[in-house]
Amino acid sequence: MEFLVITGVKLALILFIFMTALAYLQWVERKVIAHVQVRMGPSRVGPHGLLQPLADVIKLITKEGVLPPHVNKFYYLAAPFFAVFMALISISIIPFGTDITIPAMVIAGKTFGPYKTMMELADINVGVLLILAVSSLGVYGIALAGWSSNNKYALLGGLRSSAQMISYELPMSLAIAAPLLTAGTLSLRAIADTQKGFYFGFLPHWAIFQFPAPQIFSFIIFMIAAFAETNRIPFDLPEAENELVAGFHVEYSSMSFAAFFMAEYANMVTVCSVATILFLGGWHPLFPESMGSNLVAPLLMAAVGSVCLYHGLNPARPFDRITLPVFAVVFFGMAGLLAFPPTVPIIMPIFWFTAKLLFLLFLFVWIRATLPRFRYDQLMGFAWKFLFPVALLNLLVTGFLVALVS
Amino acid sequence: MDPLFFLLFAFIAVACGVNVVLQKHPISSALSLVAVMASLAVLYLLQGAEFIAMAQMIVYAGAIMVLFIFVIMLLNAGTEETKGRSWMALIFGVPAIIGLLGSLAYFMQTGMPKLGEVKFGDWKGGGAYEVGYALFTQYLLPFEVTSVLILIAIVGAIVLARKELD
Predict the structure, then answer these.
(1) Of the candidates B34, B61, B67, which has its C-beta nearest A166's C-beta?
(2) N or C: which end of chain B has fewer CB within 10 A?
(3) For B50, which of A75, A126, A146 is closest by C-beta distance?
(4) Strand (E) or helix (H) holding A291
(5) What pLDDT, in 10s, does the model give residues B132-151?
(6) Whole-prediction pTM
(7) B1-82 maps to which CATH number?
(8) What is the ipTM of this complex?
């Protein structure tokens, strides 16, 4: 009973935060790309376009879902559900913090708790394998969408995505296998916990720095394969708009169209979380607490709040007179929460995890705004002739070093 | 709870297995096969064989069946056309399958009478560590021989494909 209630609460929280984050990830992407290209980006709906995701969602929900007459109805309708299902399922085993203890409470004469729970939905001992399995099942949604649309552009998009995802699965799995050799476990929480601590008092014990085999090459290979797995630029061949119109989702409209976007962003968040846990130490800070790693978060929030306040009080920007001071108050409040001793042990791991996750997500957007698209033969040649041998060599060297030390 | 899950997924596995044969379109058959693989993975999981369950999903559902579907999509295989079933097939087929299943059931009952009860979650040898340890100590020779066999199959496939290309 206790377990069910706690899991239900966690489920609701994670679902709410994750869905909101997915909607706002698109806002972040549009804003960042706009600023890279010296544009404004969304700025009309709400202050700084902050209500744009809400407007987009309302637009997509209220639009008519067109069912083209030439499609295979069952698979056409099932494909977006499948894509979203497979994209959302893997977030349930991502740990994003240490375990927390809720102190005992007395409600209506009965004592509840104390409850101890982990900051994730499920800690399973084959977590990494589950992530791999789910990501390899994700291709069905895209392939079926392309095939059932009965449209040559869509079919080509679906074919390209299946071929691409099968090819890049291999270097990705090999890149994941290398840090597992040093970690010696398959549970994501245990892997993050092996990266606790520091060398020489300052260099974190993260897998990319770890003795005896620093996993920096695995990290790079994993990130390259992750770009291909999530169909992002420079590997977005399945939806290359200047050759395939829109690729596999060309016949989709309304919410089923939005479902593919949601699946893409959810996959991005998942691979970035996995990269954070496997290579960047999960929720463990960049430098030790003795050097003031706990001060980073409140100082950062306070700095952002001060910048907001400064610009909000600037008379040359009359439109921001109300909104920016409100943001400033929000950021100062977060700074206070991050500096408040009772909440620090709970909230600080989440801060470090989120910071690393956001950095990797920013990398995705940054590269989208910077790089052009590969040609299709280059994409396949790169996977099989370069990335796969390099990943094998990396695994071999890692195994050799680990065996030599132990 | 566990027997319920077992019955549910065993039923799904059998129903989808029958569906593989009954469906007329190759994509539907292939997807039914994926569902069979997935429900088998759940059955492994119920027995405590986590590693095998995940390997089942990754290898069969995630790699082999994706390849099947890829080929079906690439060749654009259409719906299978049937020109009615022959009565002879029905007359000889039904008694044959009843005889086959009946004798299977009979020999399994008489040949292995002491199977004992299945207890879910009792067995702890299905994790990645246990499977890896068994594979590299007790079953090292079969493991290595299998890898050589797979290597031979790869080389053979390349040789066959090259002959077609020339």
Answers:
(1) B67
(2) C
(3) A126
(4) none
(5) 888 888 889 999 999 999 99
(6) 0.85
(7) 1.20.120.1200
(8) 0.78
